[in-house]
């Protein structure tokens, strides 16, 4: 059983008699191990079978300290599971290892301390040789384990034992006092504090002390104990610079903050590494109660700045903590305009993060300092209707003027509830409703709507109040504006409608509300619907529309049956089902319309247009698997494989006898378009537009392919033998594309004719015909451009190839000529060799009177042969490097010519000629080169004359010397 022997099983199950039988049997392995490495003694010790342990201990050859895979011995198992009597037996046995360690480094004493077995701890402590401070792999001792798990009685035992290390640290730097403070063991903290030598301020690797842990974990009673102990560091800092007060403020532990603030010596303005104080931290995280407590302290620094120059007011404003901003603004010495390192003020942060309530508070505070109120504002606030009326008649009075608090006269009147004044100002004001919507002031908005405020007025961005409500997700305000006559489909300067703004915010309820009020869905894609409702690409989208254009959006898990689709009259509802084109044929097969069962053919427009009704109407389906490359290649352009695109719809006879025409009631589509078509013709137009997009995308990829071809051509310079073949295959690909296009256009036109004859009163829409023609024309033009590009590339390639072949022929001629020259040098060598070879057998050497004298002599012949070989090799070397030698020679000549020109310009007699020839190149065939030759002769004559004079002078000096 699980690889265990009979002895192991008997020891595990506690069958003493069977163990006795087995022990009396020869050949039984006393120390056999299970898969976990446990022996019979380990198992008996673990499961507490004392009598079996006694039997095994009395047997010779038993391994007392056998280790399991986890490194535990029988003593460890007994200590861990609290079997005191077995521990006693083992301790009484010689050879038992008291301090054996498991793989985690735990000894029997550690196990007993961790699991709270007091009696076993007592036994072990009473045994000589026990290691009181043995450390596990994590650096924990028995005392640490007992403290961590809250075993007070064991802690007392250990503390009463001499030699126990009170301040031993784990690998994380935690001492016993730190563990007790962290886990909230008050009674153990008391024991440790009463022990001599305990380190009150020991820090772990992150710099936290016991007081820090107690404050962080909100252990109030432990904080009280520590604060009452002399020597505790109240302002000890962690590596991040956090003090106990900082931790308590950060974690919003109000009672801990109160305790610390009531203690003398606590640093209220201590800064972390980021420069934040407890007040900054509490303001940033919105802990109002903590801020209130800190503000009661006289020495609190209201405008303390962190490393980014941010103050508590700046943090509270950024995160929109309105109540904290109010508290801070009540302080007289608060700096309202403090600027951080980015030059941003609290007002800037609040405005930038859309916290209108905080912005309003700050603006009002500024208004009290910098009053700027107009008479109209005062009159409106106090409800003086006649005065307001008189002021509005003045041309220079601006009804949209703002006071120091950013409020308009209409805002002031609305705040005070002066209905008559509101009605007067509502006719002139154009900005207040936008501001109220921005701030979410629904009560004031209703008052303005009651006063017939113009809800269609737009701000500088072209947005109406409904746009703002949609962008901020205010559902109830949007309902009020719609009830007040707001235009649902108004567009702002960016062409965004309220529906699109609501979709951008992913406000599902607001989206549904706008759809219910006839919001237009034109140009919204299926992906946008899914993104707005956080749906996956595999989810089905269902958009329904009633006869009054009210819409509904759902995400069903499947399709309705054909009977369910026919239950609602076509005049009352139309439906569009959208699903992804990568969902596979299995989902299309579940669509409740009759469509062609034939498999899709690549690149072919396949249309199912039944001639007979299915009893409930007609089902039409159109499919296209495009683009598809049937023979892909990496050497010429290959059509990238595309997806399968399908649409289908069901049409029924209209129930309205006056109309008597066919009407679509449901559409199914894998296209990306997310709005309901007007009819089947409009649906097919969507399909044609999508086809056109796919074709143009394919043509763009083909153009990029030809651009790479052009690059390859420029690099190869006519040396690529396969390029012409590849271009020819590309041209063949364009021909195939044109054939595919013609087939698709032909099928599309045929469908339009058949469909309109049957279901559209034989009326073919001109715009549909024009769309198909334009589709065919534009794609044909692009394919024609591809053809022309290939032709151009072929012509260039032919030219490159001709030039390359001409160069090859020229080099070949040069090499033949050079080989001829080389042969001239080798003829004498060959003659000499032949002459020397046959001179013993023929009289030819006697007749070769023209031969080289002494050629038969090796001293003459060998140098001649070596010289001929060297000359031949030099000739070949020059031949194969002729172009490089010519280029180097030209550079040397250029350098020499420039030097001669410089010399000529420095010579008064030749200066004029030097200036004249400066701009003439060496390739220019002019008399200048002859003048250079004349200048060289002139220089040689001068040099010769000067040399002659020097020699004469030297001779005269010698004669004079001799005379002397």
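^ Assign residues to that structure.
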């Amino acid at each position: 059983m699980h690889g265990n022997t009979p002895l192991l099983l008997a020891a595990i199950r506690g069958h003493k008699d069977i163990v006795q039988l087995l022990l009396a049997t020869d050949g039984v392995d006393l120390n056999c191990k299970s898969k976990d490495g446990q022996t019979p003694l380990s198992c008996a010790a673990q499961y507490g079978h004392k009598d079996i342990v006694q039997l095994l201990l009395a047997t010779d050859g038993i391994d007392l300290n056998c280790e399991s895979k986890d490194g535990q011995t029988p003593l460890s198992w007994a200590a861990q599971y609290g079997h005191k009597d077995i521990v006693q037996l083992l301790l009484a046995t010689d050879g038992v290892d008291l301090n054996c360690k498991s793989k985690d480094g735990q000894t029997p004493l550690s196990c007993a301390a961790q699991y709270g077995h007091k009696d076993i701890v007592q036994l072990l402590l009473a045994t000589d040789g026990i290691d009181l401070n043995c450390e596990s792999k994590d650096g924990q001792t028995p005392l640490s384990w007992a403290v961590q798990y809250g075993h007070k009685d064991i802690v007392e035992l250990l503390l009463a034992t001499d030699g126990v290390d009170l301040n031993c640290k784990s690998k994380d730097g935690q001492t016993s006092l730190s563990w007790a403070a962290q886990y909230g063991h008050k009674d153990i903290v008391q024991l440790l504090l009463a022990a001599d030598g305990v380190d009150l301020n020991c820090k772990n690797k992150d710099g936290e002390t016991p007081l820090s842990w107690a404050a962080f974990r909100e252990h109030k009673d432990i904080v009280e104990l520590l604060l009452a102990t002399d020597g505790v560091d109240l302002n000890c800092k962690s590596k991040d610079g956090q003090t106990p007060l900082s931790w308590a403020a950060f974690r919003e532990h109000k009672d801990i903050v109160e305790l610390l603030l009531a203690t003398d010596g606590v640093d209220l303005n201590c800064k972390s590494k980021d420069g934040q104080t407890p007040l900054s931290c509490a303001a940033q995280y919105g802990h109002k109660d903590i801020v209130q407590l800190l503000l009661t302290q006289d020495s609190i620094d209201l405008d303390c700045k962190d490393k980014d120059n941010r103050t508590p007011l700046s943090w509270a404003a950024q995160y929109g903590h309105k109540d904290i901003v109010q508290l801070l603004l009540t302080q007289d010495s608060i700096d309202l305009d403090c600027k951080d390192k980015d030059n941003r003020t609290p007002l800037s942060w609040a405005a930038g993060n859309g916290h209108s309530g905080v912005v309003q508070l700050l603006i009002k505070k500024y208004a009290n300092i910098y009053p700027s109120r107009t008479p109209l504002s005062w009159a409106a606030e106090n409800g003086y209707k006649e005065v307001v009326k008189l002021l509005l008649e003045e041309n220079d009075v601006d009804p949209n003027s703002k006071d120091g608090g950013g409020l308009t006269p209409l805002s002031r009147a609305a705040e005070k509830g002066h209905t008559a004044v509101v009605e007067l100002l509502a006719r002139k004001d154009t900005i207040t409703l936008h501001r109220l919507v921005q701030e979410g002031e629904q009560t004031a908005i209703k008052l303005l709507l009651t006063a017939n405020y113009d809800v269609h007025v737009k701000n500088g961005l072209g947005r109406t109040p409904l746009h703002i409500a949609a962008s901020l997700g205010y559902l109830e305000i949007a309902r009020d504006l719609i009830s007040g006559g707001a235009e649902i489909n108004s567009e702002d300067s960016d062409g965004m409608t309220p529906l699109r703004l609501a979709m951008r915010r992913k406000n599902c309820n607001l989206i549904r509300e706008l759809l219910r009020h006839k919001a237009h869905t034109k140009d919204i894609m299926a992906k946008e619907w899914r993104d707005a409702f956080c749906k996956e690409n595999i989810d089905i989208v269902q958009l329904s529309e009633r006869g009054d254009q009210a819409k509904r959006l759902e995400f069903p898990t499947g399709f309705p049956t054909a009977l369910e689709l026919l239950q609602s009259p076509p005049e009352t509802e139309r439906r569009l089902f959208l699903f992804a084109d990568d969902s596979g044929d299995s989902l299309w097969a579940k669509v409740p319309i009759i469509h062609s069962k034939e498999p899709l053919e690549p690149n072919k427009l396949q249309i199912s247009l039944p001639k007979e009704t299915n009893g409930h109407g007609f089902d039409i389906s159109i499919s296209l698997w495009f683009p598809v490359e049937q023979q892909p290649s990496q050497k010429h352009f290959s059509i990238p494989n595309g997806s399968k695109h399908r649409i289908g719809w069901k049409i029924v006879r209209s129930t309205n006898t006056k109309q008597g025409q066919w009407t679509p009631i449901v559409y199914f589509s894998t296209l990306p378009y997310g709005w309901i078509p007007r009819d089947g013709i409009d649906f097919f137009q969507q399909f044609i537009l999508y086809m056109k997009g796919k074709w143009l995308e394919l043509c763009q990829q083909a153009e990029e392919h030809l651009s790479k071809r052009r690059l390859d051509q420029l690099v190869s310079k006519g040396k690529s033998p396969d390029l012409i073949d590849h271009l020819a295959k590309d041209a063949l690909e364009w021909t195939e594309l044109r054939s595919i296009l013609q087939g698709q256009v032909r099928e599309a036109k045929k469908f339009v004719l058949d469909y309109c004859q049957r279901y559209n009163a034989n009326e073919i829409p001109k715009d549909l015909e024009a769309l198909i023609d334009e589709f065919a024309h534009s794609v044909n033009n692009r394919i024609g451009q591809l053809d022309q590009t290939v032709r151009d590339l072929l012509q260039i390639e032919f030219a490159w190839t001709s030039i390359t072949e001409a160069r090859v022929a020229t080099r070949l001629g040069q090499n033949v000529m050079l080989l001829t020259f080389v042969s001239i040098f080798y003829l004498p060598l060959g003659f000499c060799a032949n002459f020397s070879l046959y001179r013993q057998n023929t009289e030819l050497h006697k007749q070769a009177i023209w031969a080289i004298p002494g050629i038969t002599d090796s001293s003459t012949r060998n140098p001649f042969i070596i010289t001929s070989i060297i000359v031949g090799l030099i000739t070949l070397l020059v031949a194969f490097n002729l172009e490089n030698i010519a280029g180097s020679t030209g550079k040397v000549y250029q350098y020499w010519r420039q030097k001669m020109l410089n010399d000529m310009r420095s010579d008064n007699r030749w200066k004029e000629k030097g200036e004249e020839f400066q701009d003439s190149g060496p390739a220019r065939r002019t008399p200048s080169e002859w003048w250079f030759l004349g200048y060289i002769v002139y220089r040689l004559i001068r040099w010769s004359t000067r040399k002659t004079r020097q020699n004469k002078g030297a001779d005269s000096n010698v004669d004079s010397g001799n005379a002397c």
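Residues 885-963 form one domain.
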